[in-house]
Structures are given as structure tokens and as C-alpha cells.
């Protein structure tokens, strides 16, 4: 009886023998196998259900049914939460009206996600099951709220009230139920995302990737993207190679530098502080390849289906980074906190920016970090990480605005600044995200105590000593600075 319960909670038990042979949890085996199957299905989807050969209706139906099947295979009946959350949110969109539905959908989707996360962590016993069905729900929550805000922008706000990006993403008609579920639960992104805009997804399904991103002022498609359907094969192979290397590094190195050693009493007592700093960097560095593996594989699946094409670069080569979730080189060589965040979990950063940061009238930085913490889950370590992230962000911004200009006088000074800020950024990131890995309050505070809360204290002092003008004042100054050149340009044209 107990075995049946565990099987029901972790999805299909079909691969149990493989799980036992390779000594990996069944939920992880199910996930990887489903993603490999999704990759194969994506290739078939592009070849046999190409927009030139079949209708958008058929593509929507196939993408949705495959997505639901993969979800049931991985998570069993817990996958029904995906449909329930999406279905209720769609009802809110229909019944609440375009004026207020974006707020109601945001509150509902986050509340439903939080309820599932809290019950998974604090109500059910960890030994009962290991599959985290709330992972896909996090991506679906992003899609539900993004769509609600984009419908509100497209149907309830005037054109002159929208920013350029909001105009690009605004949805001008209410999606059908099939389009909605296809967007939320398609097989390419149901297990690991990434989030994408509704307009981009519909353009992909209908075979019109240039429809809203590559139109001139006359409304006609322009540029190469409207003429070609480039093959994603090279890009898919490159990303699969990255996946293989990331997985290899993670399996071979991660256990050598366990994060928990940072709070080991013997390690703290006998290890010089500089060695603790180096070990902290190495232990956190080795946790990243698993994210590189999961997100790059998800990106490759979408590309294999033909989704993710983002025009051509300066050399005329196709770009397949429309929905990419990370840029590994920029992460590892980041010379600022912002640069790291801009290249890590990119689609989530876009979601936070579009839903919260651009729209919050007061303290958008703090509000964005708080929303991010709520979205990530119920573990206290998440909140400690994002609260720490607020002060680190403010300090990094203050240093960049006040100190960086002093080092731009010569290439040598700029190089010195880059080296110092690279080291500082990497240590600041590691210091910030330790609670994210440790999860609990006790171990997290023990780590910070072993560092005498030096990161928090230093960041607060920097933020106070190096003030930065509020964002609305900086934007106003920029606008005023552009006015003379704009006026001059108009006079020049007139003459």
C-alpha cells in the first residue's frame, strides 16, 4: 500500500529499474527521460507539423496533449494542479474584465502557487515523495500573470500610456481556451520552461515569427527574418554539448565541494578566512552546472521545435536566443551584481521587470526582490537571500555610479577596476545565495555569523556613504539631456 502511494506521488514507476541501476531518484530519471523524449518530439513537431504543412489548431492540440502527458508521467495526479491553476485564472480573466483582471490573476496565481509550495514543504513528509511538482507551476504562474498584464495593456490602456516593450507584447484580443492552455502547458516548456511572451508563442505556432517583432512603420514585414526559416540544428547540437559538459562537471565536482562545509564548526575554526572565501566561491560555483544543464536543455528543446529564433546578428548568422534563460560566459565573468542577475534566469528577470519593477510606484527594487522570494517558495532561506540581495544591489549600484567613472581614464585603470569588481561580484553573489542553498534559517544565520555579517554591514555603509539619485530623477535628467539634441536635430532637418 505504501509503495502504491509513493508511486502515485512521484508519477510513473515504469522507469524504476533504471532508477535502481544508476542509483538516481525516480523523479529525476522521469524528468530527464521526458526531456529527452520532448527533444525528439520537438524535432518531429518541426518536421511533420510545420506551419506550412498543418494548421495552427493541430499544432496547438498536439503541443498541449504531449505537455499534459509528460506532466502526468513525471508528477502523477499532482499535475492536475497545472490545469486547475490555469483554468481558474482563465475564468478570472473572462469574468473580471480587462480593467482589473491583471491584479486578480497576480494575487490568485501567487496564492495558489504559495499554497502548493507550503503544503509540499510543511504538511507532507519529505520521505513520502521527492518530485517537486511546484517547479513547473512556477513557470505557469509567470505565464498566467504575464498574459494577464499583456491583455490589460492591449485592451484596457491607451497606446500612448505604454512603453515600447509593452506595445510589442500587448495582446489585442482575448485568447481562446485552447490557445491559452497550449501556451501554458505545451510539451516544450511544461517541465522546465522557460517563460516566453504569448505573442512570441502564437507567432511560432502560426509560423509568423516576424509578425510583431519585425514589422516596419507601414505594418509590413521587413528584414531577413520574414524571408527565411533557418535551421536550428547547429544551435541545438551546440546547446546539447553544453548540457553534456555541465552535467559531467556537476556529477564529478559537486560532491567535492559541499556547500554545507561552509558552516562546519571544524572548518570554521581551523581554516583561515581567505581560505574560507576561496572555498565559498568554489562550493557555490559547483552548484551552477545543474541549472546550466536544465535550462540549456529546455532551450534546446524549444529550438528543435523551431521556437526561439530571434533574427540575425551583425554577421548574418541566425540567433536562437529569444527565450534563452542564461548566458554562461557573462555569468562567470560578471563584473557587477546587475550583470550577473541580467544573465542568470533571464526570462524570470524579464517577468519580474515587466510585472513588478516597471509598474511599482514605490521602492521597485525592494518590491521586485520580495515578489521573487514569494515566487521561489516557502523556504526561509529564499527570503534571507532576497533580503540580502536588496542591500547588495543598492551597494553595487552606489559603487557603480560613484566609483566606476574614476577608473575610465585609461585602459589599465579600467582593467584594474574590472578585476576588482569581478572578484567582488563573485564573492557577493556567493555570500547572498548561501541561504538559497541551505534553505533553513539556523544554518543560514550560522554562516552569516561566521562572517560577522560583514557583507550586510559593508553594503549598508556603502549605500549610505555613496548615495544614488532616485530612478525617476535620473530618468528625468536623461530626458532633459536629450531634449537639446532632439531640438537641434529638428532645426537641422528644417534648414
Descriptive notes:
By secondary structure, the chain is mostly helical. Helix content is 68%, strand content 0%. The chain contains 23 helices and no strands. The longest helix has 28 residues. The radius of gyration is 24 Å and the shape is globular.
Q: How large a portion of the residues is in β-strands, by DSSP E? A: under 5%
- Considering DSSP H and I runs of 4 or more, what fraction of the residues is helical? 55-70%
Q: What is the SS-derived class?
A: mainly alpha
Q: What's the alpha carbon Rg, rounded to whole Å?
A: 24 Å
Described by strand count, sense and barrel closure, the largest sheet is:
none
| Oligomerization category of the chains in this entry | single chain
Overall pLDDT, averaged? Answer: 87
How many beta-strand elements? Answer: 0
Q: Which series of helices and strands comes N to C?
A: HHHHHHHHHHHHHHHHHHHHHHH
Spans of at least 5 consecutive residues whose pLDDT stays below 50 are 1-9, 215-227, 484-495
Helical stretch tally: 23
What distance lies between the first and last C-alpha atoms, to the nearest angstrom? 87 Å
The 3D shape can be described as globular
